[in-house]
Amino acid sequence: MRTCKILFFAVLSFFAMTMCSQAEVKDVSFRYGRGFDGKDFDQFDIAVSMALPWQRSLNSGWLTHFDVEGILGVLTLDGDTAVKPSVMSNVLVTSPAGKLDVIAGIGMGVMLGETKFSDDHDLGGPFFSRGR
């Protein structure tokens, strides 16, 4: 029953950002990562990035625009699992030719399920921050 509640909250959190009527889906990505301090953590992510309608052209030709990214991650180690829904807002600055993007973002999330995988890997509690 606890697993059903965790999955329900994770899916609800992940898709809540789609209710923003001014955003349009920019891309969807799937990610996989493995390893952490010699342990075999596996992390699976699905991310949806949505462009927000606010943008500004600078006199130099550079374009400043914004997006929001919703990430649903699952972290596993030795049969223990944590579900990690999070939201990140980004500021993007694109060069005049569109060949260079500079991205800065900050976000937050909640970890549902395990936060202590062993005596060696205590992730510090259910809340976490993201940045780039």
Number of strands: 9
Largest sheet: 7 strands, antiparallel
Q: Helicity range of the residues?
A: 10-25%
Query: DSSP helix count?
Result: 1
Keywords: Signal
What does this structure look like?
With 132 residues, the chain is mainly beta. It has one domain (2-131). It has one helix spanning 2-16; strands at 24-36, 39-57, 63-77, 80-94, 101-110, 112-113, 116-118, 121-122, 127-131. Strands 1, 2, 3, 4, 5, 6 and 9 form a 7-stranded antiparallel sheet that branches. Strands 7-8 form a two-stranded antiparallel ribbon. β1 (24-36) and β2 form a beta hairpin.
Question: What's a quick, concise take on this entry?
Answer:
The protein has 132 residues and is mainly beta.
Task: Throw out a few tags for this protein.
mainly beta, signal, 132 residues, seven-stranded antiparallel sheet, 1 helix, two-stranded antiparallel ribbon
Fold topology:
Layout: H1 2-16, E1 24-36, E2 39-57, E3 63-77, E4 80-94, E5 101-110, E6 112-113, E7 116-118, E8 121-122, E9 127-131
Antiparallel strand pairs: 1-2, 2-3, 3-4, 4-5, 4-6, 5-9, 7-8
